[in-house]
Automatic annotation (TrEMBL):
Coiled-coil annotated residue ranges, if any: none
Transmembrane segments: 12-34, 46-76, 96-120, 170-189, 209-230, 242-261
Keyword Transport in record: yes
GO terms, biological process: monoatomic ion transport; sodium-independent organic anion transport
Origin species: Pluvianellus socialis
Record protein name field: Solute carrier organic anion transporter family member
Family the UniProt entry places it in: Belongs to the organo anion transporter (TC 2.A.60) family.
A Gene Ontology term for the protein's cellular component: basolateral plasma membrane
Keywords for the protein's UniProt record, in alphabetical order: Disulfide bond, Ion transport, Membrane, Transmembrane, Transmembrane helix, Transport
Cell membrane recorded as keyword: no
Bilayer topology: Multi-pass membrane protein
Localization in the cell: Cell membrane; Membrane
One example GO MF annotation: bile acid transmembrane transporter activity
Amino acid sequence: AGCEKEPSSYMWIYILLGNMLRGIGETPITPLGISYLDDFAKEEDVPVYVACLHTIAMLGPMFGFLLGSLCAKLYVDIGFVDLGNITITPQDSRWVGAWWLGFLIAAVTNFLAAIPFCFLPKSLKKPEKANNGKTSFGLLENTGATGNRLIYPFLSDFCTSLKKVLGNRMYFTFLCCSLLQFSSFIGFLTYKPKYMEQQYGQSTSKSNFLIGLTSLPPVGIGIFLGGLIMKKYKMSIVGATKFAFTMSFFAYVIALSHFFVGCENYVVAGMTVSYE
């Protein structure tokens, strides 16, 4: 009974609310940003611009892992205790890195990055050869959404629009494929650092550094090259679909090689071997 202790800190509530506010602020950037590009850019330039947007979005997690690697090397109570009295190192299992420091740095960076958005014009003059007739507003009109529904998004209107969007077979198929891809990618990023720590004896700091350096940049480069290829060959929707399917198939085949890579389990007394 003396070893049991109920948690008395409610700091997790602040972290939960902070992440919720961050998600609310970041959500409009991708869908509205893509619509913004699609409405005011030349049709042949849209794939490159969208690729640049997604490539930059991939650089964020890469720098996040590198920042996490740096923070993991710092003791959790940095600034509050004398580090000279700390006798353990990051290689010690009792070490806790300054996980909270990354939140503060990211918050300040997000705030500074959001300031230029306040100076964007409300509307732009469409250039020649822009996507006239193919704007996001026109697409919404084709799906049954009216201007009033855009201005007054009541729940009933949202459900009606959602039903029409999900009724589009191509969009629904693309949505399912995206869910599968992101589910595997998120699981990969979540568990691979811990796998490297356990199987290869790496520290948390070095695992995060290696993941950020080797896993995310190739994805960003691939997204950018995909945009350039689409622009060069001026792919239609059907051509882009075939191109995406082909690349996804090859990626799936190559990813199967992960099943043949592994290490034997550690010898742990009482678990994998007997105490004798």
